[in-house]
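dumping the sequnces here before i forget
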Amino acid sequence: QPGRVILVGAGPGEPELLTLKAVRALQSADVVLYDDLVSPDVLELARREARRVMVGKRGGRASCRQEDINELMVELARAGERVVRLKAGDPMVFGRAGEEIERLVAEGVTVEVVPGISAGIALAAALGASLTHRDAAHSLRFVTGHAKSGELDEGLDWRGLADPDTTLIVYMGGRTAGRLAARLIAEGLPPETPVAFGFGVGQRGQRLERHRLGDLVALGSVPTDQPLVIGIGKVFAAGTPAVSVPAETATVF
Amino acid sequence: QPGRVILVGAGPGEPELLTLKAVRALQSADVVLYDDLVSPDVLELARREARRVMVGKRGGRASCRQEDINELMVELARAGERVVRLKAGDPMVFGRAGEEIERLVAEGVTVEVVPGISAGIALAAALGASLTHRDAAHSLRFVTGHAKSGELDEGLDWRGLADPDTTLIVYMGGRTAGRLAARLIAEGLPPETPVAFGFGVGQRGQRLERHRLGDLVALGSVPTDQPLVIGIGKVFAAGTPAVSVPAETATVF
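..and the predicted 3d for all of it:
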């Protein structure tokens, strides 16, 4: 019986935010290859007999090279294993799934993708902020805070990103937050534009903060051990009514 | 005991694509207020005793006014009911949740939001297309195909939307597909840019089609009874390896 690989979105961390389909995939897995960012609570959902292998990756730490992860998946699938490749959030949004799928398909391995709740979407739910509120945004945009180099991505159309009617979600932007804010302001986005920080959003110990874009410039970088997602735009105005967030899991400033 | 309202993302239609949290909300609901676009299979997950009320809304058909929906939610919550407001996809992405949350919070009603899989994310999973493939896109963008007027949204920064390194997801774009394509081409996006159509993606009877941007101009509008999500960008190239999609539920052209 041939093996296969299912790329599964683990969502932001809270096991309840996995889809039924993701849980089903985990419960039929022989092997689970997971990223460092996947929470232990989510791994708990995997079939008890499943082998769990951490394959990376977190900025700065040693982790498997992408090529090695690809190779491992191919080998396991060829050996007839049901492989789940578990990725934080959604596999197709800044999840490097493209390279993995290409390699697997090139090798004739059956691949399936199970979507997940991306951090930006979880941030919106936690804050009760409609990302496309009719009065405040007609476009929603996802970018990363840095290019391969670790610096701001010069290839981005910064003028477009500075559109005050766009809601901007920035992944992995902790290190470049100050430079990002300065650049957006230079391109015309008002310094008083509301900003939301979601630290480990959709996880135990989630923390939400509200800022103004101008404040980020002085702040510089945002050192944190938790995954950080940043929301920028009018929809994150403090006036936005915060919805009920369980007291033990979140603090809203 | 006070009532409360949970805005729940129903995902694209397949019940397996709901989160565990969404299912739990449905199974503890007294009343479920659902949109026309929510699939019957998803409604099946609601507690058997729950009253199910269709409140709208689909282009062209009679449906409740937003004000009436808001009012109904407030009244039910005040009467102590556990209300689930069930919305297709994710409530915070083109779901009009902003107005509902504002009203509920203004009336002192407790609100919670449970995120869901948005159609654009489901499209990516169905096609096996990483929306932010490193070699093809450094930005991901969600817009609607029409403004309140039903026409293209003139307020959008069309030059920015025509960035060949952006993946563009268009919701509710069936009627304006031709005009949208013509506009993007006029702003510089190559006519050979790959396009993916997802009809009822993530639902039974899902249908996927691949086109080129230039072909849409002649096509004009795309009449369909299914919800349509359109993906535009290099990540949708036909070369993108299609992942395994159950044969009985999907056709890939």
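Residues 244-253 of chain A have pLDDT under 50 and may be disordered.
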